[in-house]
From TrEMBL, chain A:
Signal peptide (residue range): 1-27
This protein's UniProt keywords: Signal
Cited SUPFAM superfamilies: Periplasmic binding protein-like II (SSF53850)
CDD domains named in the record: PBP2_NikA_DppA_OppA_like_7 (cd08512)
Matching Pfam families: SBP_bac_5 (PF00496)
Gene Ontology BP term (one): peptide transport
Molecular-function annotations in GO: peptide transmembrane transporter activity
Species, as recorded: Puniceibacterium antarcticum
Keyword Translocase: no
Protein name (database record): Solute-binding protein family 5 domain-containing protein
Automatic annotation (TrEMBL), chain B:
Assigned protein family: Belongs to the binding-protein-dependent transport system permease family.
GO molecular function: dipeptide transmembrane transporter activity
UniProt key word Membrane: yes
Compartment(s) of residence: Cell membrane
Transmembrane segment boundaries: 104-125, 137-162, 206-225, 246-273, 307-329
Pfam families named in the record: BPD_transp_1, BPD_transp_1_N
Name listed for the protein in its UniProt record: Peptide ABC transporter permease
Key words of the record: Cell membrane, Membrane, Transmembrane, Transmembrane helix, Transport
Keyword Transmembrane helix found: yes
Amino acid sequence: MLTRRNFLATAAAFPTVSYLSLNAAMADTPNDILVVAQQLDNMTTLDPHVSFEAVGSEICGNMYQNLVKPSLENADEVLPEVAESWEASEDSKTFTFKIAQGQIFASGGALTAEDCAWSLQRVVSLNKSPAFIITQFGFTPENVVERIRATDAQTLVITTEEPTAIGFLLYCLSANIGSVVEKAVVEAEAVDGDWGTAWLDKNSAGSGAFTLQVWRPSDTISLNVNPNGGYDGSLQRVILRHIIDPSTQQLMLAKGDIDIARNLTTQQIESLADNADVDLIRKKQASLMLVSMNAANETLSNPKIWEAVKWAIDYDSIQKNILSGTHDVHQSIIPEGLPGAVNEVFFTQDIEKAKALLAEAGYPDGFTITFDHYSAQPYPDVAQAIQSDLAKVGIKAELISGENRQVLTKMRAREHQMILSAWGTDYFDPNANADVFCINYDNSEDAATKPFAWRSSFKDDKITEMAVAARDERDPKKRIELYVELQKYYAHNSPFAIMMQKTTTAACRKNVTGVELAPLPDGNSYAETTKA
Amino acid sequence: MIPKLKSFGSMLSSVLVTLLGLAIVTFMIGRVMPVDPVLAAVGDNAPESVVLQARADMGLDDPLIVQFWHYLVQLAHGDFGRSVLTHNEVASDIAHYFPATMELATVALILAAVIGVPLGIWAAVRQGSITDQVIRVLCLTGHSVPVFVLALVGLLIFYVFLDIVPGPGRQDIIYEGMIPSVTGFLTIDTILAGDAGAFWDAVHHMALPVCILSYFSMAYITRMTRAFMLGALKGEYIVAARAKGLSLWAVVLGHAFPNVAVQLITVLALTYAGLLEGAVVTETVFAWPGLGQYLTNSLMNGDMNPVVGTTLLIGCVYVGLNLLADLLYRVFDPRVK
């Protein structure tokens, strides 16, 4: 008879799997492999002439070089990379670059002016999302072969449509879209006139510190050191693993299973501040968090209301209580770290002033408005804080939470009233943001260009004029002055309450050094990274 | 023979109708969703000309019905289209992500059934005893605590403090890129590659997520088994069998259990189907590149080809498991024969 006792005895006799005995000794990651935990979704390509997302740009930045690169120490300076020198013609329309001798691609092929010219021709002909950074100088698929050409192996000549400030051109060439790819390799992979995009999507042909070994979407990106790329640290490979959950990233960092965690939250960063095993590398990113007010809405078209909202928000308290590890207060359209940025604080909370402005605008008792925001943290917390600030002056904001793409879709269709969102800068020149925030020639539904200002139906001819004048100014010093003036004017005369600038943090194990972060993601680099 | 063919034919057509309905509903939901699919393709900062071009290239300018027709024609050719996000064929993406999910789900289900069914029987036989109470509390916990809490607490205890399981992911970093993907099932691929170290590494990495998933499923299986068994044990034939002098376990296993086995097949099939959909939360915490993450990420970005493709696959899984359950009924239930 089967009693409880012999039931238990039988059960115990079953072979039980002991993980303890099977478990191999777990050590830290090998010294020649850098393991990074990062959110790697929302990345569609690793072709530098197509890629237009933060993570993709960062990976491309590690695999490719440009003619020039911005200086991270001094934002007003441009450093040579593939080009060793450059000069502008009298009329500021022809720019000649001398390509340094003896540079080679990962494949071993020589890097010449022809590769540089072909790369830019490829950008213009493909005309993908980021191509406007280059095509805004008047290049079209028809004229580009003539206007961007190599006159010999070491000389690249670029001719722009209009007289151009050389600084503006150089900064644009320093963006990810200006990456130099190896003509011979990419051309050999071209199918049906696709300029090799299908291949370059998941392969690399550059001269940067690393080459692409494999990219498995939403899983792993593996980079090998480029033997010709001048890297001289301890690494052989960099493996980026798609770890979505920040808590998981933190656990793995604590255990030493990863060397760097890239997506920690404010609370996690704070908890690591005193950790002896972890270094926090921090850098302000060219990414702004802001409130946009749709000027198509009658109430929100009133400049006094714009001002009232800006005076009502308690920026400091939001930064300290919700965003201390990830954002700093920043209120002008050009982010800190970029040339010409104004870091002045224009608004602090002043309830009386905001109330007075509301009364002047004809809304002494406030009004009711809808307020969209992203559903991912920290946006809901920030939106709630703004909601309670606005309530203090009588503005009743009804919060509408949505997935990132959903909120953007609504905003792009101009169906919002007030919205809390973010804007990332495209390239390292003040015009990058001034262009989208200020220059709007056509506010109609079927406008040919729909800049960020258009999305909130904001068109101000004076601001457009100021931004164009600054963009086209050829004297570098004067150009910066014009941008400073523009930002100060803009802060008080636009329906955008710029609130915060993002700070990114790479939490690194102590034995990892030389991780470099930059204001733009394509500048985030492992080229100097080494493990002890 | 003819009636059999007929019933097979009608079954096949009902399956096709089900899948077609699924495709229509999913496609339409995708197109009326307030997310612009172009955003995923070109990004938020792209200039208007690029946006318009991409919209035309993706066929989004056509009327909905035309778009759907194009999609159906494509499907009929066995082409699920490409994912905007990964630039891969949806079929090849699924071939990459589904095995990861299936590997977890299969082991988790086996574990859950092997532990859950006996526990349920035991609890039913000892109804009201302390054993029964303990098992019920265990099940209630498994079913009511959110999986991500279980997963994170599991990681904290077994990975961080006790150090007896490896961290999140499917394999250790030293094996990264070493195992050629043949079947997509890492355990099988490592055996094919003849790498014992990599095989055990893969098994280790599965241990904790499998335990979490199977605990969750076991809770349900145990509860259902207990309920079915309680019903069966009330039967007069049980009393009769006991009165004839058969031992308790002979009666329970020989007479009562066969009667609940048929119902249990349905429970197990549904649980397995649920697991095969991919557990987004578990996959997220354990950084497991499975179907759940793929589906969710595509959905968030309005990337509809993968969403419809994955939904059809899940539809097929349900239909397939239903058929399998039907077949098993014939084996276990003499009345169906």
